[in-house]
Design a protein that fits this description.
flat, Four Helix Bundle (Hemerythrin (Met), subunit A), Ribosomal Protein L15, Chain: K, domain 2, alpha/beta, 2 domains, 10 helices
């Protein structure tokens, strides 16, 4: 009998995103729960313990296998599991330990469906991202055009700053090695940011697919949120690593991204920032209909974020 089932330890609960490490990549190993611990077992039988409840997102690369017990434990402690391709570039599947708040989903959908409300949110996103209010009387399409020009210019300036040869953003998700070094570093860096952003969106109780600038993708809102921080965090990291030409650029990028997430206190900021972005719509969250049936069993108190399942 385990300590948990014997009642000697309290049941596992999620902790807030801001208290966690951002992201860990795992490749080539069997992921299981052994002797009560979440571990990765390599081909020689050596176990590596992962402090699962203290991680926002685990990125599982080719060569990993996950047991039912490991997946169940990740869901219980609110850690996002993401199955990705090499260097995290292609997303194959993801667990969903958060996103359990219908009031927030309805609020997000209402903001996205009303063009005037959507424009307010988009303007706020650009204001936070660029540090200044965007031009007045512009549509979302016009704002996107302005953003695109600024982004291309930012890439050029960073390439010049770090002495990196830059021919533009160009990569093929089906041919990782076909891209040049700066593009590979950028793709690896943005994959780290997308994992953290998705974990935060779910933990806040919102839907990754309901975007405001991006649309038509399962992670549209994740891309919206990640873009707010991209040039503050991972893009400079990618160009700096590319300038060093390391033997394993993807690994160097991941380590540098974890450092910059910690230095910028990204996990402390991201959920409050999501709330501020959506609050730009200036509408309250909808109340439940008066005739709706509430939960038969009240939700237990949780230390985690609003979207974590208790």
């Amino acid at each position: 009998m385990s300590l948990m089932s014997s009642g000697l330890l309290p049941p596992l609960k999620p902790i807030p995103i801001k208290e966690r490490v951002s992201v860990i990549f795992i490749e080539k190993g069997e992921i299981d729960v052994l002797d009560g611990a979440f571990v990765v077992v390599d081909v020689t039988g050596v176990r590596t313990h992962i402090p699962l409840g203290g991680v926002a997102c685990l990125m599982l690369e080719p060569g990993t296998r996950v047991s039912h017990r490991a997946a169940a434990l990740a869901a219980r402690v609110g850690t996002l599991l993401v199955w990705v391709g090499e260097a995290g570039v292609r997303l194959y599947s993801a667990g969903q330990p958060g996103g359990a708040r219908s009031d927030r989903l309805l609020y997000q959908a209402k903001l996205a469906l009303d063009e005037n409300l959507r424009l307010k949110v988009v303007r706020k996103m650009y204001a936070v991202r660029f540090g200044e209010a965007p031009p007045e009387r512009r549509s979302v399409e016009q704002l996107r055009g302005i953003e695109g020009a600024r982004v291309r210019r930012s890439y050029q300036l960073l390439a010049r700053q770090f002495g990196v040869e830059w021919a533009g953003r160009d990569y093929d998700t089906q041919d990782w090695n076909g891209a040049d070094l700066p593009n590979r570093c950028l793709s690896a860096a943005t994959a780290c940011l997308y994992g953290v952003a998705e974990a935060a969106v779910l933990a806040a109780g919102y839907a990754p697919a309901i975007g405001f600038i991006h649309t038509g993708k399962p992670l549209s809102f994740v891309y919206d949120v990640a873009d707010v921080y991209k040039f503050e965090t991972v893009v400079p990291v990618a160009f700096r690593i590319a300038s060093l030409d390391p033997a394993n650029p993807e690994r160097a990028v991941r380590l540098a991204c974890r450092d910059v997430f910690r230095q910028t206190k990204l996990l402390d900021r991201i959920i409050p920032d999501i709330e501020d972005l959506l609050a730009a719509g200036e509408i309250p969250r909808p109340d439940a209909p008066a005739d709706a049936v509430g939960p038969a069993i009240p939700n237990p108190e949780s230390l985690g974020d609003a979207g974590h399942r208790s």
